[in-house]
Structures are given as C-alpha cells and as structure tokens.
Amino acid sequence: MRNTFGTLFTLTTFGESHGAAVGGIVDGMPSGVTVNIDDIQHELNRRKPGQSNLTTSRCEADQVELLSGVFDGRTTGTPIGFLVRNTDQNSADYESIREVFRPSHADYTYQIKYGVRDYRGGGRASARITLSRIVAGALAKCVLRSEGISIKAYTSQVGEIKVDEDYRKFNLASAELNAVRCPDELKAQEMEQLIKRVKAEGDTVGGVITCVIKGCPIGLGEPEFGKLHAQLGHAMLSINAAKGFEYGTGFEGCIKRGSQQNDSFVPGVANNISTLTNRSGGIQGGISNGEDIYFRVAFKPVATILTTQNTVNKDGRPVSVNPKGRHDPCVLPRAVPIVEAMAAMTLLDALLALKSEQF
Amino acid sequence: MRNTFGTLFTLTTFGESHGAAVGGIVDGMPSGVTVNIDDIQHELNRRKPGQSNLTTSRCEADQVELLSGVFDGRTTGTPIGFLVRNTDQNSADYESIREVFRPSHADYTYQIKYGVRDYRGGGRASARITLSRIVAGALAKCVLRSEGISIKAYTSQVGEIKVDEDYRKFNLASAELNAVRCPDELKAQEMEQLIKRVKAEGDTVGGVITCVIKGCPIGLGEPEFGKLHAQLGHAMLSINAAKGFEYGTGFEGCIKRGSQQNDSFVPGVANNISTLTNRSGGIQGGISNGEDIYFRVAFKPVATILTTQNTVNKDGRPVSVNPKGRHDPCVLPRAVPIVEAMAAMTLLDALLALKSEQF
Amino acid sequence: MRNTFGTLFTLTTFGESHGAAVGGIVDGMPSGVTVNIDDIQHELNRRKPGQSNLTTSRCEADQVELLSGVFDGRTTGTPIGFLVRNTDQNSADYESIREVFRPSHADYTYQIKYGVRDYRGGGRASARITLSRIVAGALAKCVLRSEGISIKAYTSQVGEIKVDEDYRKFNLASAELNAVRCPDELKAQEMEQLIKRVKAEGDTVGGVITCVIKGCPIGLGEPEFGKLHAQLGHAMLSINAAKGFEYGTGFEGCIKRGSQQNDSFVPGVANNISTLTNRSGGIQGGISNGEDIYFRVAFKPVATILTTQNTVNKDGRPVSVNPKGRHDPCVLPRAVPIVEAMAAMTLLDALLALKSEQF
Amino acid sequence: MRNTFGTLFTLTTFGESHGAAVGGIVDGMPSGVTVNIDDIQHELNRRKPGQSNLTTSRCEADQVELLSGVFDGRTTGTPIGFLVRNTDQNSADYESIREVFRPSHADYTYQIKYGVRDYRGGGRASARITLSRIVAGALAKCVLRSEGISIKAYTSQVGEIKVDEDYRKFNLASAELNAVRCPDELKAQEMEQLIKRVKAEGDTVGGVITCVIKGCPIGLGEPEFGKLHAQLGHAMLSINAAKGFEYGTGFEGCIKRGSQQNDSFVPGVANNISTLTNRSGGIQGGISNGEDIYFRVAFKPVATILTTQNTVNKDGRPVSVNPKGRHDPCVLPRAVPIVEAMAAMTLLDALLALKSEQF
C-alpha cells in the first residue's frame, strides 16, 4: 500500500510539510512493552532541524503526542496513533513556486500524477514526513533491544570524503559525538568542513550512510520475494533522496571470484556455527545467519540549491527559479536516525514473521 | 507475503530445483490480451541452461504449460496457472551435502529456520526457481509492449571488465547477439574470455547488469513506501545472488554537488516537459517523470566453486566440501532476462495502480 | 492487517474510548475531490451520542479535525489523517471493572490475548471507535455520489418489531425523520416504544439493519475470494455487535427451489440488460450486475445491562457486576450510518479495483 | 487480492471447470508437518462428484498431485504447489450457451467485467474450483489437529426440512454416514427424499450448513477489521452459492433482550474461565474465548435447472435456455467439506497471527 510499511508490524503515515501535523499509526506493536516517551523524543531530536549549524534553520519542537495504544506506560497491543504538530511553516516562501517545477524535486511528477499538489515546503514529498518513521522506529527499537538486537548507523561518506576502514575498527556509538555522525573523528572534521564550504557556496552535497545490526537471531527473512536484504533495500530506498543500496560486500564484491567472496563456516561458541569472514553481510539465501548485518545507502545531494536554476512552469514555459525556504546543505547527518528507524521496523516485522513460523 | 510478488499484478511461485515441477500463478493479468506461448517460451529459452559453453551443463527443456486463464488465445482476467516439469535432476550428486553446509549457500539458514530442507540442488534456494518469474515477466511484457513501454537489460560488468560508456551509446538489442549479453562487442569478448578462464580454474565471477526502460508514462510509483525505485530495488534484490541496486547516477552521484546532480526541466515535444539531463534516472519523488528509467544490479560470484572448501556439518563439526553438481561460472548472462522480467512485473503493477487512481 | 480495512481505498484506525483521541488515516482517496468538512461532520452527527432519548447520555462534540491530504478544499491524493478528541470520559465509572470480566463483553478475551487492557469504557472494543469509519465512509461517499452511486441503510427490525414490506415500498430518505431511523412510520413508533420500555427495565434489545445501494456499475467485486458480497459481509461483520449478514433473499431464499429463486434476464433500457426479479441482490458470481444491491445485518442487544449479573474476576473467582457508565439500550439507530460508511468504503475499494482492470 | 485467501497461511488458486487443470499454491504452511497424501485425497473424495445419486454425474478422479513443499513426507516451510487435472469435460454441452446468459449464473457479470469469458462449464465461476480449497483446508487441518482443534460441518437444513435441535444433541461424526451429511438420521432421510423429488422435477433446492469448531485457544482473531467472525464470514461468503452467514445465536438472537442473550462467566476447569451459556458462539469482541465456535451458512438452490427459462443473449435479445450439462440438484452435501476447509484455513491463519503476537 502506498503509505503503509510492513506486514505484521506496520506504519501508516500522513502529513505534509506545511499542513496541520504529520503523524501515523503503528499497528502490530507487541503488547506489554514499556514505552518511555523520552526515548521516542530522543530519536526525534536526532532528526530534528537546527541541531547544529550543518542543518536547516527551520525551528520545530517536533514534540510527539501518543494518542492511543499505550496504557499505564505499557503497550496494549492496539494501534498506536501519534502526531507532531507543524509550527514553524513559512509558507509564504513557497508562493513563488506555486506554478513552477523545481529541478530534481517531486513538484512535476506529483502535479502530473495527481493534478493538484500542496506546493508549500514540498508538501508530502518533504523529508519532514520521515519523522513518523522515527517514532515507529523508536517503538520497534524498544522491542528489539529486549531481544538483544542493536542497530547503529553512521555517515561513512560525504562527497569525496570517505571512511576507508571497516566498521569493526570504530566505536560506533561515538558517531553521535559529532555533528555529521561519523565515528572516524578525523574524517568527521573533514566532512564538517566540506559541508560548511558547500553551504557557503549555496550548494549541497550527497554521501553514504553505513548501518550495522548486531544480535539478530538466525532465520529472519523469507525465501523468494521477502528476502531480508530485499526488505531492507525496499525500506532504505523509500527514504527521501536515497539512490542506492548494497549489503555485505555489495557492488565491490561483484568484481571478485567465488573463492575470494565465500565465507567459510566454522564451529562457533556454544553449539552455534559462525563464519570465518562475513562478506555475505549476515544474510544468506535471504535469511539472517546470525552474523552482523551491514549495508550502505547512497543519498544524493539535496535538490534545493541557493543559486538560480533554469526550469519550466506549469505551462511548460522556461523560467528561472531561485528558491527561498530553509534547507540542509547535506541530509546525511539527519538521515542517520531515519536509516536506523527503517532498519528497526524491518527487523521487527521479520521477527514477528519468524515467531509465527515457530510451532 | 513470502512467495508472492506485487499488489495488483501478482506472481506467486512454488517449486524446488529437484522437485516435480516449478511454476506459479499470475493474478491480475488484464483480460483480452493476446498471449503467444512462443513469446513466453522465447524468454524462458534466454534463461535456460545450456545456451552456450558459459553456462551449466544441466539440460532442461524448460517447456512451460499454461493451465488456466487463457481462452482462445486471449487472457480472461482469471489467474494464469503454469508449470515447468523438472526433468534432468541428478539428485545423487547432492547426497554428499545432505548433512553439510556449503559456504555462502542457503543450506545453513534454511536448516535453522525450517528444521528441515530439501538439500537436492539447493532446493527452493536454487536459481532454477526464477523461471516462474520469467513466465510472469513475459506476460507482463505483453501488456507493456502494447502501452509502448520497452525494457532491455544487459551485462555491463563481469569481474574487472566493465562497459565504460553510457547505455545511450549502444544498440541494446545487439546484447542478445553474444553469449554474455553485452552490447559492447569488444567488452563482450573480454568478458567471455574471463568467464572461460575462471571456469577453467573451477572458480566463479560476479558482475553488474544494467537495465533501461523506455516509454513509461508519467506517474508510475507511489509516494512514501511505494516509491517506484524502492519497488524496483525490492524486485531486483529478490533475485538470487543480487547484492546491490542503484538507479540514476546511484552511488557515484552521491559524491557530487547539487548543482552537478540536478536535472533542469526544459520544454519538451508536444506539450510535454522533459529534462535536459537525466541523472535522476527517470524517477523523481519516487514517481516516473517520463524520461528513461535506468538502474544497475550487482551480482556476487556463484557460491559453488569446484575446489575443496572448509566448512562444518549439521553437528557443527569441521568438514571439507568439494561439490559435484552442475553450475554456472557466472550468472550474469542468464540473469539478464530475470532482471527484465522483474522490471516488467514491477512496472505493470505500478501501471495498474496508476489506472486505479485516474478518475 | 488488524486495524486496516480495504485494499486500494484503505482506512487504518486508532483510539480507545477513554484515550486522548480516536482517529485514522484514509489512504487511496482519489485526488481532486472537493471535500466539505460539513458533510463529514453531518455523518458524524448521525452517529453521535445524545441525538435522542434513545441513546447514551455520554456527551461528545465528536468534532473531526482533518490533518492532511486536503489542500484548498480538494483532496491531493495523499493520505488523509484525522482525529476526534475524546472529551467526556467518566473513567472513574470503570474502576469497579478493572479486575472483572463483564458478561459478553471483550474484557476477558482482550485480557488473555494481550495480557493487559485499557478497561475504561471498553477501551479499543468500544463502539466509539467506529467514528473513524464514519469519517472514511463520508469521504468515500463524496466519490461515490459523483459516480451516481447512492447508499441508504435503515432499521428494519428491533426485537420482535419488524418491517414486513420490501424496501421498494418506502421512501428510504424518510428514515432519517425519526429517532430509530426506520422508513415505516408506524413501525418506527412501535420500535421507539419498545426501546423506551426496554430501557426503563435496565435492559437492551437487538435488531436488524437493511442497506440498499443503487447505481452501481456492473463489474464490482472479484471472483473467488474477493466476491463483492464476501467483502460486504466482512465489512459488516466487523461492526461491533454484528452477528449475521445476508444479501438478496439470504437465509429465506435457501428454502426455495431454483425455479423460484432464479432471476430472468430481460432487455433493459438503452442497450443494458436487467433482471425481472432481483433475488440475487444485485450480485451474481460475486460481481455486481447493475441491479440494486441490498443486504441485512443482525445486531445483538448491547451487552451492558443495568441489572446485577454474575461473572468472574481476573482470578477466576465468582463476583457480581452492576455496571455504571452510560450506554445505549439499542445500538440500531446509531449503527445505521456505520453500516452505510462500511458499505461506502467497500464499494469505493471495489470501484478502484475495477478502474485498474480497464485497459 | 483477487485469488488469494489469508494473510499468513495463504491459498492462491487457479483453474477453470473445463481448462487443463485446477490447482493452487499454499504458502505459510508450517515446516516439519507430516503430510499424508491419503488424508488430502480423503477430503477431496468427500467433495467429489458422483459420490451418491444426489450429485452430478460428472465423473472426475480428482486425483491431486503435490508439486513442491513436501520432502520425505514432511513439509519444508516452502510453498506447496498442487494440481488436479480435469478429465471429464463435456465442453460440447456448453456450445449452446456461448452467447447466452443463463439466469442467476455469473455468465453476464463476467462477460461485462472482462469482455471475454470461458463459457464452458461455468469457467472460473464453477464450483469445481473449490477443490483447491479442499486441498489447502486438508493441509491446515493437519496442523490444527496437532493443536487439538477440530472442525465439523453438517447439513442442518434442506429446503423446508430443518434440524430443530442443537448441535450438542448429535454425534457430528455420524453426519458422514449418510449422503446428505446430516447427523439427525430421520431428518437426513427426509432431506434425501426431498432432494430426489426436486431432482426428478428438474429443479434444485438450497439449505443451510452448520459448522462447529472445538478446542480453539483463547485469542484467535484481531480487533477492528480482523474480528474472527468477520474473517470466518468472509471465508464462508466466498463459497459458491453462499447467501448468508451468522454465528452464535445469529439473526435469532437479535430479537432477544440483553438479559436473555448475555453469557455469564463461570469458573472453569484447571484455572480456566468458561461461560455458562454460549450464545456468543465462542467469539467475544472478535476474539475466540475458548468455547465452541459455531456458525451457519446459507446456500441458495443451484441456478442450473433442467427446465426452459427465459433470458437474453449477448446482444440483449430475448432467448430461451434449456441447459444441458451435469449438475447437482442440491449443493449442500458436497459443500460440507468446503465449509470445513475454509474454516480450517481461517483458523490456521488466525493461529499463526496469534503466535506472532506472543513475546
């Protein structure tokens, strides 16, 4: 369905950038789970605009209100409705683009598909919409945490600046200590400088986020069309500005020979079996094998740049556009919690499916 | 659902490599479409083993039987059941791996997930299963063709050998003239030589397939979770051995600045609007914009190599495995029609959704 | 999915009787439809408590707020989030049943299924939750009206009092003129008196609602599992207190011979074909045939009665329960708009499916 | 989806009455379940034509072939494809109705919806299609049996002949001892005589099937749209010729007062809680409460009668039709196993959902 994600644990979302509110409904949340609203708000704050001078100056409290499904601090198994009111819309900034299609935005495709669009702040196509995903992801994380599953994403590339070393070399938690969310301190500084330089030029820059999942049970994912990496890929590619997804050794591993790519099984601790290497990225035949799951998501540079661009208007006539509005020079830092949220939802959904299979 | 793909145009599949048959049910096929069984068989033949000396020597007729949904040569709107009998199984080849987990195969994860597995020929995890996709894709292509939509995939990389130039430089139909399915004749020869060399060494090699879709109407794909590229990504990542997906400028475009990445809109022919460049890959805001859609899919080297490897058995004890059975040294040539089939199904599904939206 | 109804036009709901709010998300609403908030509020008012002295004295404004999906008075094709705040909860009335399972309520089954429940006002099992359905139904009606499809339900039986004549004998719109919503004026008075008498006794009474749909195109509904009457049946049986569903001549027609039950086709007006009789209830082979669709839904008497009943508590020990709280002596009058809303959603969903099939 | 039933345990079907075969794919079958092909064939034989002189003389072996998903006699968790070849089609019998719409058949609605139809033997609308449901139901029963859940349906009414007493009065297994499948021996004889008389007149007759489910755990079914009785109702109403569904005291209970309808909870055996009466039919708030589930399904008389009827042809011109072909005078006896099969699938689906909820 269009605005619903998942099968057993589902999120359905609504909202436009400059509408009354954005929000959603989480269905399939297990009952009896203790929910701390601060945990959810903490995740929203990681995505919130205005955290640092690398992000947009739009100022939103992004205060979530849970409307149902939680009673006396615990989930009841019924759907959890929630919303976040929009408060700092400067819709006047968007009057100039009412009839104009901004390059590489969704203005044109929405207009043709629907015949009408809310042009203010990108409407439904705004990345602001992703905060519903953060809320659902935070709820999913509550359950995953109690099952011993952890998820950590970080910025591994901004423009040309790339973390060269493997995720195992870093304390991933340390990514939260800098504004770009990169666990490699030196690279983090270079990335920050690059983003500031690009911002000063009125331009934007893209990059890559890496995500690592630890503690997964064996058996998540389904054969054929529900392969775990296909579900993760779908989840990640549904994030605004995502252009690519790869897991394990990804595109690079495809250059290799089978003899260089295969992971040998070896006896593991406590009766388990593990693999000597993990080029498979924790997924074999579409099903988790108990090793770390890791993947990378490519994000394009934000389409809104603060220089004059040529485009056309609704009548197909050439015009130039010089956007106002407040935008991020680089989405990566704020996309890190979104990647985690989508991973959390995907994993919980797969975990519920696995439970249903165990007779 | 586990073994169903799509929402309005759906394929549900069944079958194991060495079972009685593989097949499926296509639901949502528009009625009144002329179906030529030879067109379907032609696509199956493109995927069939034994087409060239680059592929496995398993010899299957792969003759499809349509069981329903077609009457007097035309579709009736009812589901199309079909099957292909398995005929050339050498199940004895697999007795040695009954209790052994082959490296980077699905043996281990299936065993743990289900507690039982059909170990013969990889069972359900065999790429042989994809022939159901070919049948459904061929049916989808019938409809797309009449709507002016064409799909062409080709091998753009094998190991280190890579087609450097853009797809627009080639006559893509010519890819079918060589065994690797690459439209760049020189590279095709290099790829062939590489595959033969790798095969001689008992090894395997991976690569990349590029796919180009022309003639799409504007409006395919849905906002949020049904973005067209997310659906395509899911489809492609569900193919055996797929490790990555990117569309438009993909991972490379993420290094760029917004000013280098944006596509300017320009007045098009006959009232349409088009873009000067197409870095977006024909999709903006998750919705097709009428330009060519193109994407790339990474495939890992086949896990079965003809050298002795270390692994463990069901009891977790170290053993060595030296597989018999017949395998491809490189899946790319035979994966080309599978990529096309999955793209065709995804597009027809999106097209049916678009029809339902047009009041 | 648990809390989602529909395939192409979907409603996902949330909310508990005494929670912060009840609401939902409508997805798949066609774009460009003019939405008048008063039309939606009008439908909510038909369901609202306190309309007459036949209903509960709980006093709720039931004022709906649309949060997204409507721009400049027209739908945009994006999801429509909405909510209604709960304002008149007397949760203290329910303290006494915190640990007690009321007879024929959902208290026990929810407690065992989820291990926890919001016992206040019936929580999620309260009929208050249906107001989300009213909102979605009102939106669906907007579209159906413009397609020439009308839906009218009415109370055809309360306890022993039954409308004997066929729906064609009445001006169905006149049902709205009395408190029980019955188009037979005399029977309406008898029903009112019965409900008052039952109420005075602290008891409750059930009945039957009949619903008539006119103007359907031929072709709604899908063969096999998506038969139109199966979809309607599912929709109706999902309404609180519903115990049965029949369409056309229903249970009574089953006593008949084929020669008494069959509807002869006859030439209709303007090239159409119609049937001489309509025992089929407008649906043949699961697909609408253009005749009036009509069906009946049975509702049990409300479980909350104002006399002492024997039951058990959480520990399984016998206790007596004498409920406070405010309740309807008969749900029928307020269930009429709910039946219409569910029918509207079902039909629009089927209509969108039909559009997707028309190439 | 059109031809798929269920969410976690799903059946997708294909096939036409006079096509090559009918069959389907069962997905979500738990792994490790022992499958005895004779058990499945036994259920098919209960539905098979020609069991007695009360049924059609079409002679089909209805021999099922399992094509996948079972290995060494046990399910593997992968989809189970199966088919039954059609062998005794007399398609020539149907040439006369190629252009004619038989009264109260699906000929007309299929023709208008799809623009084309397989008119032979009713095509996809034939009750022959239900044998796929029998196969899936037999598989579901294997699992339910091991969970202690039993399902038994029986003919409780044929025309005016009605079993007056409650199901608890009978040994339901004895229903299989007579041709109409009624556990009340005397009524069974009357029913048989009625069917023979009706058959001799070239006419047909309808009736009611009652189904009783014992041993359900508490917690099956989901609030709101997935209420267990709504799912059962959907399942039953999707069976050919079904016109109504009621559970518990159904339509009759709606005449009653709340004080007459409520079921008091009482302490049960071994810590459980049970109800003194079971007017609720084992379902409260849409969720099973551990008591017997029972419901009734109304079936109309078969539309094919062996007397001349007036109708119209494709051009809308009046013609008379006098069908050849072989038909049942009463579907009830052969519908009994179909009702059981649909109940089995619904329950297993709900059981898998319940498993996924139990953390």
Tell me what the structure shows.
The structure is a homotetramer of 359-residue chains. Chain A has 359 residues and is α+β, with helices and mostly antiparallel strands. Chain A has a single domain (4-357), classed as 4-Layer Sandwich (Chorismate synthase, AroC fold). Chain A is built from 8 helices and 18 strands. Chain A has helices spanning 37-47, 107-114, 131-146, 185-200, 228-237, 250-253, 258-261, 332-357, and strands at 4-5, 10-15, 21-27, 64-66, 70-71, 74-75, 80-85, 150-158, 161-162, 207-214, 242-247, 265-267, 273-275, 283-284, 287-288, 293-299, 309-312, 318-321. The first copy, chain A, has a 5-stranded antiparallel β-sheet, with helices on one face. In chain A, strands 9-8-10-16-11 form a 5-stranded antiparallel β-sheet. A two-stranded antiparallel ribbon of chain A has the order 5-6. In chain A, a hairpin with a 4-residue loop joins strand 1 and strand 2. Chain A is globular. The mean pLDDT of chain A is 94. Chains in contact: A-B, A-C, A-D, B-C, B-D, C-D. At the C-D interface, strand 1, helix 2, helix 5, strand 11 and helix 6 of C face strand 1, helix 2, helix 5, strand 11 and helix 6 of D. Strand 11 (242-247) of chain C pairs antiparallel with strand 11 of chain D.
